[in-house]
Fold:
Amino acid sequence: MDDFSRLCIHTITTKPLRLDIAIGAYQQIGAGGITVWRDALIPLGLQESARLLTGSGLEVVSLCRGGFFPSTSAGERQKALDENRRVIDEAVALGAPLIVLVCGAAPGQSLQESRGQIEDAIAALIPYCEQANVRLGIEPLHPMYADTRSAINTLAQANDIIQRLGSPYVGATIDVYHVWWDDRLETEIARCGKMNAIFSFHVCDWRCPTRDLLNDRGLMGCGCVPIRQIRQWVEQAGFHGMIEVEIFSDELWKGDQMELLQQIQRAYRECV
Amino acid sequence: MDDFSRLCIHTITTKPLRLDIAIGAYQQIGAGGITVWRDALIPLGLQESARLLTGSGLEVVSLCRGGFFPSTSAGERQKALDENRRVIDEAVALGAPLIVLVCGAAPGQSLQESRGQIEDAIAALIPYCEQANVRLGIEPLHPMYADTRSAINTLAQANDIIQRLGSPYVGATIDVYHVWWDDRLETEIARCGKMNAIFSFHVCDWRCPTRDLLNDRGLMGCGCVPIRQIRQWVEQAGFHGMIEVEIFSDELWKGDQMELLQQIQRAYRECV
Structure:
C-alpha cells in the first residue's frame, strides 16, 4: 500500500467541490491533510466548516491566505491588519496552526517600500499570533507576481524578514512553483531550516509552455520544476511535514475532480 | 525641440510595418537608432535590407537575436553554434555592432546545466566575434521565461559569465521588463558598468495586470517598472548609448503604427 499520510490537498486544487464533498474525497484517497482556502468556507459557513474538519480525521495544515499588507494609504494598511486578525480568528476556529501569507504589493510605490510595510505589518501581528497560537508563513511569490500580489519574490527576502523579526511565529512557506528558478534556492532553504522556519511546503509544476499567468499550473511531473530535488533540500533542512498539492488550473478544474485526485496520487508517488 | 537622438526603436515594436516603411517612420519621428529583428529581414532580403539601413541615417544599434544554445543533444548544440555564426554574418552585413542573445533553456535538464552550456557556447563564439568585430549582449530574461527561453534570469548570472569569459566582445543587454523586480539590480548594474559591459538598454513597461506571458508589454509609464530609476543606475554606471524601445503587444500591434510611434515619443519624453 502506498502511504499518503504526508499528502495534503489544498481546497483550491479541487475548486469545484464544496468543502464537505472535498473532505470526503480527500479521505477517500487516504490523504493525511487539508489546507483550506477562505473562499471554501463561504458555502457552509465558518462554524459548520470547522465542525466538519474537526470530525474528518484530516490534519488541517494551514489556512490560505492572509497578507496583502502594502498600500500607499495608511488607512488601507490599517484595514489590512484588521482583516488579517480576522483570518487569525478563523484559523483558531478551524484548528489551523498556520496562515499562509501572500504579502501583497502596491504598484504606486517601490517594491522596497512595499517590503518595509510588509515587515511592519507582520511585526504588528505577532502579539495576536502568540495569543492565538497561530503561525504566519511568508510565501515568496514568483517575480511575475511582483506587480500586485507580492513584493516578496525570493526566499532570501523572506528569510531576511524572518531573521530580523526573530519570532517562532513567523516563518516561510516554500512553493516550488514560485522559487524553482532561483539559483540561491538550495542555500536559502538551508538557511531557513537553520532558523527552524520552514513552516510548509507546496508542490505543483510549471507547464512548458505556460498559457496563463495565474491558472495554468500543472500536475507534478508534467513540467520543468525539479520537484524531487527541492523536496530533498527541504528535508535535508529538517522539514518533515506535509507535502501540499496546490494547483490552480482552469483545465484541471473543468474535469472530473475525483479523477484529478487519483492523478494527484500517481503524480505524488512518481514525481515528488 | 525635443531630442530623440538617443531613442532607438526595435522593428518588433512596430511589427506590422515592413522594414522600409518602419525606417521611414522612425526617421519621421526623429529617432536616432533602429534595432533590427531577424524576421524583419525576410520580406526584402538581407542585401536590400542592409542597403536601406545604410542609407537611412539611422544608427543600427543591434540585431535581435542570437542564442538558444542549450539542448540535451550535442548535435542540436552544434547546430545552434552554426546558426549563431550565421547571425554574426548577418550583423556584419547590416552594420550592426551588437547581437542580443536570448540564451535559451532546455526543459529536459537543470537550469545549472543549461547555464554551463550557454557559457561554453558563448566562449566558442568569441573568436568569430573578434574576426567580425561584432559583440554579444547576454540579456537576462524574466524568471517566467526560465522554462524554455533563457536559463539566464538575473543580471548577476549574466555578470558572472561576462566576468569569467573576460572578453570585450561579451557583455549584457539590460531590459527593464526582465530585471525590474530584482533587489540586487542596482548593485549588479554597477558591477556590469565596472566591467564596461553594459552593451545595451531596453525599455517598456509591465502592465498591471499583465494578460499574456509574452505579448502584453506596455508603453513606458503605463505600468509598475521604475524605468527612470533604472535608467539613472545604468547611466551612473557609465552607459550613455541608445535607449531602445522594445514592446511586444498584441494590443498595440492592432492599432495605427504611426500613432504608436507618437505615443512612444511622448512616453519616452515623460517616463524614461
